[in-house]
Amino acid sequence: MSVGDGGHHGLPRLLAGLEPGGGAITLSAHARVHGPLPNIAPHQLIEEVERSGLRGRGGADFPTARKLRAVADRRRVGPLIVNGSETEPASAKDRLLLGRLPHLVLDGAVLAAQAVGASEVIVKVGDGALDALRALDGAISVRDSDRVRISVVAGPEGYVSGEESAVVHYLNSQVAKPTLVPPRPFERGYRGRPTLIQNPETLAQLALVARFGSRWYRELGTVADPGSALVTITGAVRAPGVYELAFGTSMSDLLAAAGGPSEPLQALLVGGYFGTWVDASAAVGLRLAREDLRSVDCSLGSGVLIALGESACGLHESARVITYLAEQSAGQCGPCVYGLRAIADTVAALASGVAHAGERDRVLRWAQEIRGRGACHHPDGAVRFVESALRVFGGDIESHRRGRCGARPAGLPLGETALAPPRLGASERPAARTRRRVAR
Ligand SMILES: Cc1cc2nc3c(=O)[nH]c(=O)nc-3n(C[C@H](O)[C@H](O)[C@H](O)COP(=O)(O)O)c2cc1C
Ligand code: SF4
User: Which of 54, 87, 153, 186 best tests ligand 1's pocket when mutated (most atoms within 8 Å of CB)?
Assistant: First the structure.
């Protein structure tokens, strides 16, 4: 078949069919919004994804077609894993997709599985993602024409448990900690087999590319950053939430999409807790585009944007976040365990005014020393965050030393989502830590 036109022009794309305040979309409503699952040959799908320029939305920003090809070129391919862990505390996009629009993610997973020769899909989510678990169970039970088996696994929710080798490790042996790479999952993953692991948003985008083609996909965005992205916008904005925006959108339009700032802003944290603080005056001139973000040393990462109001203290908030990140170390690599702990303690001392400004240089030196020295990228992301915090809020250290910080806590979320799903009764919680559900 030819991959063609017919897609909705403009926005929303991924979020089309989302009913405000509603539950999970039904299969028939999903088919009405997007049309049936296309019958597309594996090589054609990979080529179309390549032409679309789609890149992974789990944080690493890796070209999706390259990953598909790397697995498709191998034999005895393992299951396709949907990495729905969403361990970034402020992020809510993957839970939104899995909990409300599960068929779009499953379409992408089934198509990608077929493209690389996988006969099974495993969706891995955090065990607190109750809406997603329930929606996936319901969606899988009504999909009877998929040619691959689909199952769901719930696992622990710590920050590093979403790293891809940790996901594979958990599925292989119930240990949600990263493993030494290489081998990477695409070389030796689930049960030793080549394994493709993708973020839910990546797969949802892929499902649209498969239906409507790369030319349609490129109608939005810029030449270098085509398409749209889901961005969780939170902090000092009037309407925090998940928004779908075209690449190339200006930061001020991003903030406007979330109702605009709720107070004058001092900084934006772009990319979540592995991301970068940017001074508000520098941030507003940027677009949601790699080129612009790179100019201030940041990237979209996991698609989180946190606005920090002038009434808050960036130094205090950053100390809380780096303490959290240090606690989230999987405890396997010395530089990560001891280095992040030392950095977190010193940043906390700077924020509470008990360390002198010279300690800042020690933190920056330690950051240099531990970069690249973990089995996974956890320390790299954490030190990027700290370096940007000291760059943007370093000027406040002296006033903290003199006890002059009267800021209000901004309460950046730690360990749970900023946009928590509605609370559920105990009877609706999953009975066991790990559950599997197999369709067909
Ligand atoms: C510490 C750490 C935590 C991560 N957590 C997640 C996560 O929760 N969800 C996710 O999709 N990717 C996460 N990633 C990125 C994954 O390792 C991997 O790159 C991603 O799932 C691949 O999918 P993509 O190519 O579609 O982005 C994490 C990476 C690191 C280093
Ligand atoms: S770098 Fe840190 S989080 Fe990553 S595997 Fe090593 S100890 Fe665990």
Answer: 87
Q: Determine the distance separating the centroid of ligand 1 and the alpha carbon of 92, expressed in angstroms.
A: 14
Q: Is residue 97 part of a domain?
A: yes
Assign 5 a pLDDT band (cuts: 50, 70, 90).
low
pTM of this structure: 0.93
Interval 155-164: pLDDT, tens: 999 999 999 9
pLDDT tens, 133-143?
Answer: 999 999 999 99
Residue 290's domain comprises: 228-309
Domain count, the chain: 3
Q: How far is the CA of 333 from the centre of ligand 2 (A)?
A: 5
Please tell me if the CB atom of residue 54 comes closer than 6 angstroms to any atom of ligand 1: no
CATH number of the domain encompassing residue 92: 3.40.50.11540
Give the whole-angstrom CA distance, residue 415 versus residue 159.
Answer: 8
CB atoms within 10 A of CB 322: 26
Ligand nearest to the CA of 123: 1
**Proximal ligand: closest to the CA of 371:** 2
Instruction: Tell me the torsion sign for CA atoms 133, 134, 135, 137.
Output: positive
Ligand positioned closest to the Cα atom of 337: 2
Q: Which atom of ligand 2 is nearest to the CA of 336?
A: 2
Tell me the mean pLDDT in the region 243-248.
Answer: 97
pLDDT of residue 6: 66
**Residue partners of 419: CB distance under 8 A and separation at least 6:** 92, 232, 234, 240, 241, 242
Whether 180 is covered by a domain: the verdict is yes
Residue 36: how many other CB atoms lie within 10 Å: 10
Residue 421 lies in a domain: no
